[in-house]
Fold this protein.
Amino acid sequence: MPSIGRNDPCPCGSGKKYKNCHGPIDAERATAERKLKQAPDTLLPKIMDALDRFGMELPAALGTFWNGAYNVQDIKELDQHEDRGSERFLTWFAFDVADELGHTPVQRLIAEPEGLELTEAEAQVLAGWTNVRLQPYEIVEIRKGKGLQLRPLFGDGKLELEDHKAAKRVEVGEVLITHLVPAGSANYVAGAAAHLTADTVEKLREFADVHVQDLRRDNPDATPADLIRSRSYIFNHFVMALPREEQEIGKLDELVAMTRATLNVTAEQIGFGSSNPEQAMPVIRETPDDPNVQDDPNVQTEADVDADSDANVVTGAIDTAQVFETGGPSNAKPAAARSSGDDEGQDD
């Protein structure tokens, strides 16, 4: 649409010049929109600084997010082991970890913003972040020089991601696992995003479905939306298990199988069982030397589980998982692929 000159007739048909009619109104609206879009750049650091209010909840959350690979003693060295590890964890902690009343730190900051010293634009943007969670988004369309159109992998609708740099590094059909925060008429990546190539998407769906089925043991009506609200950390577990080489793609099968077996054992321990014995998942027993157990194909021993446990520590592939840094509008940069736990491939 061509721009309207100040001295042109106002499009509203009033007969006045644009500068004397809707020009000032449109200029004020554009200024307000610009402030909203800039707000995440300053709002996110304020949220990170306020997380010390919730420090008692951090140790357990850290173990959950990293699937037991790290504890609170490792937090200072976390970035040495995981690309942007501290930022990934703290962003998830802020948006996803609920207290006993079901309120996340962001939700509690929205309710009690004292001390944040928010601008009017920041307060308006923060109010729209109450339901933001870590989840996967499929890339539907790439708009060069503008950004991406995304669709929640486990949801409806389409969202605009305003990030022209990210648009240069992705392809349609790939997936971003991230926190997508609205600001004004657009959305931006909060913290970091894992970039998954299209060949991993079906395994991600299968992995998530295992968890949804587990939720349905307690709540038969559970949906992927319930999974995102209660177990969004599993998406980071999936990223941690991404193979480094194409020939290691079977590691994702191991992750799905191991998750299914583990959740089944947990369910049995609290009194749930399969209603169809023929479809029962493998059961872990503590008696691997029992001759009645050794020949049962539906039983996994502790030794079997130990042998398969590598599925939980496989690192991300150079071409399969990237982590994007972002601080707001059009500010994404690619980070190095994950390494095997040393400094190789890490940011300086």
In short: The chain has twelve helices and nine strands. The first helix runs from residue 23 to 50.
